[in-house]
Amino acid sequence: MRMEKSGNTARGLLDQPWVPVEISNTLFLVKVSFGNTAYQLLISDLDFVWYESVDTNTLEQRAQELNRRLKASVVSFFQQLCAIAQPKLEGHEETDSAATFSCERVQDGLTLHMKSELAGVPFYWRFSCSPASVRVICQHLVHPFLAISRFLQEQTLELGTLLKRKDDEIQDYKENGAVLSRDRLKTELFQQQAFNKLFFLKKLPEICAVQDCRGFTREIQELYVAVTTMGSRQKRKHEDSEDTSTQVSQEVSKSISTQAEQAQKMPFEHLAEEKCKEEEGGTQSPLTNDTRKEMTMATATQASSQPTARPKKKSAKGLFR
């Protein structure tokens, strides 16, 4: 059987929404991602955030440890776990009325206990969550909610602009003789700053008074999923672009290095080739012994009558001519 690593569900976990789930009279925000034989779980009570990542090996070991009377494959165990736990942890109605969930805090961690039945035999599972790292918290809470805040701010500005245009349209109707048939529909001109100030005074205390998970409505969940999905898509696109850029850069560097090596060898090879051609193609007129003797004596006489000078180097032929 091919082992599934929990990392394969990491991207799926990011795209899941936070949903309110009540366990042992405690309301949590939960997000979970189930793979084939692996899962990842994030759970928070708004004071702490806990995390668990389970791969196939851990799943098999824990299933055997908690259910010694059951003999089944890891796939069968996982299917039973998904059938019972997934609806509960995703905020849906429980499909197995016989299943019970409880939680307890163990030092800094959080343990969720699940009890059900499989083929008439008790079936147990334990979610052993440890404190989430700062990176996980930023990835699943801080970054998405900052993006949501920016989105809602832009949406508010767009709505304010739309209301201003509506006011201008109504004013144009009035100037052309239109009359409102029902006084109760009459509204004041929209002033963005005045509206924001009044809204903060009225709504901010009410919103801040609700310090639990119930405010995470379906609309916010959908917006959260949209933000994280778009972020994942852009991140993958950026990573693909970086990989392509790195590959091109490596190919260019390799090409430049090859050309540089060839350029270093070319002058010497060219000089050697020119010298060979010169030796093969060059001819000298034959000299007699007397002629050589006279030339030697004349050269010696000339050298003795002139001061000694350093011999000049012959200019190289070929590329450096």
From TrEMBL:
UniProt entry keywords in alphabetical sequence: DNA damage, DNA repair, DNA-binding, Nucleus
Biased composition, class Low complexity, residue ranges: 296-309
Region called Disordered, residue ranges: 231-321
Encoding gene, per UniProt annotation: nhej1
One cellular-component annotation, GO: DNA ligase IV complex
Polar residues: bias regions: 244-262
Domain XLF-like N-terminal: 17-130
Biological classification of the source: Eukaryota, Metazoa, Chordata, Craniata, Vertebrata
Coarse class of the protein's main subcellular location: nucleus
Gene3D superfamilies per UniProt: DNA double-strand break repair and VJ recombination XRCC4, N-terminal (2.170.210.10), Helix hairpin bin (1.10.287.450)
Compartment(s) of residence: Nucleus
Molecular function terms, GO-annotated: DNA end binding
Organism: Erpetoichthys calabaricus (Rope fish)
UniProt record, GO biological process: double-strand break repair via nonhomologous end joining
Biased composition (Basic and acidic residues): 267-280
Family listed: Belongs to the XRCC4-XLF family. XLF subfamily.
XLF-like coiled-coil region domain location: 135-181
Identification of the protein by name: Non-homologous end-joining factor 1
PANTHER family according to UniProt: NON-HOMOLOGOUS END-JOINING FACTOR 1
Bias (Basic residues) ranges: 310-321
